[in-house]
Amino acid sequence: MNIMKIMANKVTKVMGNKGNQIEILHGIDLQTSSGEFLSIIGPSGSGKTTLLKCLSGLVQPTSGTVKIDNQLLNNISERKIAKLRRTKISYIFQSYNLLPALSAFDNIVLPLRLSRQRINKTKIYQLMNSLNFKADLKQLPAELSGGEQQKVAIARALTMKAEIIFADEPTGALDSTSRQIIFDQLRQLADSGVCIVMVTHDIGQAAQTDRALVLNDGQVMAEVNHPTEPLLISAMNETKKAII
Ligand SMILES: Nc1ncnc2c1ncn2[C@@H]1O[C@H](COP(=O)(O)OP(=O)(O)OP(=O)(O)O)[C@@H](O)[C@H]1O
Ligand SMILES: [Mg+2]
């Protein structure tokens, strides 16, 4: 049975300084359950990252509500949100968010250390092999290429057995082979019951998810169940027409 994992109601987000404020999200409703692979597509600046941050509790919406496992995230204490991140949620950042002073290996195992879980070094080396990671795990993030840093960020999220994975363009810096390898890992996790919400520019990848939302200018313009590339392209074209 699929269990409801995320429920967002009328989420808005206003950003900017006093006197120069803009509403970036205009009342977004979204629900997703365990085992579902949801993708969010849309042009640059449409609010995808902001939405993902609101859904995961990294950022508080200006109005509206977000619930994870029926727990309201609005005004949740720092302690509770930290616990949620240690136990249930993984977030793959668009900008990787690796700690510069820690080696690649130490970055990967950081969530395990924080939650006092056992670290299986062999498993981590196997995972990195399967991700086609060729660099040395003792290196610092600054000594790695963008794609290698992205793989470290992905591995950090995958080693933690999260129930929900938020992934913000997780394969943007990768070649097509690595992109497919990582996508397949996420697909397998969804098939084993993990709820995945992935932002992507890649229509081909979105077409392999269970449902796609087309975001434009802070609004969900279309929702495509069992998406295919032609369905997504036509949904995006309709969206453009609606805006012109
Ligand atoms: N802290 C902030 N202050 C003011 N405006 C912001 C802030 N963060 C984001 N924005 C604006 O909000 C809009 C949406 O940004 P967001 O990063 O969510 O877009 P995105 O869809 O993820 O774009 P991309 O595909 O380029 O990653 C943009 O116009 C951006 O300039
Ligand atoms: Mg973004």
Automatic annotation (TrEMBL):
Gene3D superfamilies: P-loop containing nucleotide triphosphate hydrolases
Gene Ontology molecular functions: ATP binding; ATP hydrolysis activity
Descriptive protein name: ABC transporter ATP-binding protein
Keywords: ATP-binding, Nucleotide-binding, Transport
Source organism: Companilactobacillus kimchiensis
Taxonomic placement: Bacteria, Bacillati, Bacillota, Bacilli, Lactobacillales
Domain ABC transporter: 6-242
SUPFAM superfamilies per the UniProt record, alphabetical: P-loop containing nucleoside triphosphate hydrolases
UniProt cross-references to PROSITE patterns, sorted A to Z: ABC_TRANSPORTER_1, ABC_TRANSPORTER_2
